[in-house]
# Entry
Amino acid sequence: MTEPVVVVGGGIAGLAAAWQLKRDGMPVHLYELDERVGGKVRSSEFAGQVVDEAADAFLARVPHGIELATELGLADQLISPSARKAQVWTENGLMGLPEPHVLGIPLERASAEALLGVEAADALEADLARTEPDPVRDDDTIGSLVRRRLGDRIHEALVDPLIGAINAGDTDELALSASSPQILAAANAGPSLIGSLRRMKAGSDADAPVFHSFVGGMRVLVDALEASLEGNITTGVGVDALDRLPDGALRITLSNGEVIAAPAVVLACPAPAAAALTTQWSDASTDLDAIPLVSVTLVALAYPTGTVDVPSELSGFVVPRTADLRITACSYAMQKWPHLGGDIDLLRVSVGHGRDQETPALPDDQLIAVILADLEAAIGITAEPTDVRISRWEQGFPQYVVGHTERLGHIEGQLNPDGVFIAGMGYRGIGIPACIDQGRSAGVDAILHVLEHRG
Ligand SMILES: Cc1cc2nc3c(=O)[nH]c(=O)nc-3n(C[C@H](O)[C@H](O)[C@H](O)COP(=O)(O)OP(=O)(O)OC[C@H]3O[C@@H](n4cnc5c(N)ncnc54)[C@H](O)[C@@H]3O)c2cc1C
# Structure
């Protein structure tokens, strides 16, 4: 009888890895340091509703989230945002994002001009007129590529706030190849970035849902995974050490003092924890430790119904880093997800990004004061919220800086031959579908390793 493959960490990536291993008939056991699984997927009671403390939805454009939900029997519970239009903060107040756009990049001259003026519109025309290819460079960041092709204005006013909000990052630091595969593909697909994005957009269904979630929050997915893995999960017990013995076996020391053996291990814990567990593979450990992280704080605010007076088709707004506000994004949760409405107006506000690590670390009272001042400036709310919840995600967002993909190559080159596989937001995608995909792939890799090395 094969010893179970060990999965370290019960976030969505670790749960997906364990699900894959179990489904494929491989013995598996997952250890989660916290008392609960879910990691950064956390939905809890707030103002009489179940409200997500971090992710409130996952992308529908990539298949991994929907596929897993379907396998777990949750397909008929998927919901999509009711309000789909977002705004951006400008020197003239809140304005609609240009229509159409891809990740903030306007695709039509008129909408670029209306929002940002003639210069930005001319930059768009110049890109469309380009006939010579401008190959993406290995060290291109999202910022360097968009600034070179479309100018600073489009980048700073639109692309940075939108993509920066997804990654909590500074898009002048984030590697294009690792952080924005969509723009990378478009930039490589022809001389004109706008031309390629237009073709991509034309090939997609404009009415298809962009995001999915569940009434009951993203926790529904985690709960279903936990239930399906009954008997395969231990919570409240972390992995303290991982060693490779001379005969090639992997030895795992648990935080309760127990020592166990495993034929393969999936490290689905954050990169710093993975670094601490891989000191025997010293280069991999150093590389894992070198992945930068930033902190983000997400604040939920409840008001009596009617306090937040914004058009019903709007889901919220994002704020450029260059602006005079310190919040980075605000979601009108009661319009995005009407089941959260009831007798409250509910806002979810984010602070913190690559260039601002001060605001998310402010003490509660100062943080709330900053947020209320920004909300008054942006949407004119002067009322005090009836409930406030602060969710701090310290060092919660890995940053895929230039060299990230090469770094992953080194890490995996050291760990994989010994049956150690990495998965999760630190590596090949921040979003929940990407974490699910990584977890499942690591599960398959672990199975192949076990089959190959079985005596
Ligand atoms: C504020 C915020 C908003 C977000 N919004 C969205 C969104 O709208 N849509 C979206 O798709 N994604 C979003 N994300 C990203 C997404 O939620 C994460 O990328 C994903 O949940 C990470 O999953 P993971 O399994 O990689 O890591 P984690 O969730 O961090 O799980 C790792 C687990 O490992 C455990 N662990 C650590 N050390 C050990 C050890 N030694 N032994 C055992 N266990 C250990 C931890 O306790 C943790 O439970 C958001 C993230 C944040 C923080």
The longest strand covers residues 293-304. Residues 60 and 66 are 7 Å apart (CA to CA).
